[in-house]
Design brief:
Largest sheet: 8 strands, antiparallel, barrel
Distance between the termini: 86 Å
Number of strands: 10
Radius of gyration: 33 Å
Length: about 230
Amino acid sequence: MLLPERIFQIQKRPTLAKEPIAEKIKPVQDQRFSFGLSLVGSAYQQSDTVGRWAGWTLGAFGDYRLNNNWSLMLGVQARFVPGHTAQGDSSNPNQVENLRYSFGYRSEEWKRETRGLHFLEIPISAHWHKGPWALEAGGAAGMLLAVQDRTEYTVESSLEEPKTTVTKFVKGNSEPYNQNYFSAFAGAGYRLNNRISLMTKAQYRFTPVFKTLGEGLKNKGLGNVELGLRLRLF
């Protein structure tokens, strides 16, 4: 008996095109720019007999990384410098006394002293990094925003006990002060983790605080040391 010849056809399974390995693995993005906030405590040369020396700085910064070891930083910050009471005159006195007699006496005394100066500052610096350590150097330009005074008003009479009224935040006269200044600084930093860094630096302001001091004599610049933290937000 003759059996019919069977013909087997081999069907090829469709093959799926494989994506290149390079397309599956996305390269790590090279983030060169970062932004953050800074909080700094400062120690200044004592400027008056009261002995105030503590100031502060609060600001924001942007950092642009040039390569693995170098970066540039630009910031904007508010700076508080303690003390620096201007010499009083007839238009801006530091103390006023008034004594009157009428069926007894009445005494009035008014005193003023400068608690500190508020500045807006723009620093720019170059940073060198090696592991968690960093060194920096740069300069800053500043502008006087406000003079913070403290006033004390005392009233005393033969009919009542002395009464003193103290006002700690009074806007003072900015005329005796230089409105703008320039300074230079250098410091070091240590990265505690991926976002927080500890930093310290020394800064010297070349422009004097006052326009003149005493009988037309120019005063010197101002130096300070700082210790603070930088917080990188992204």
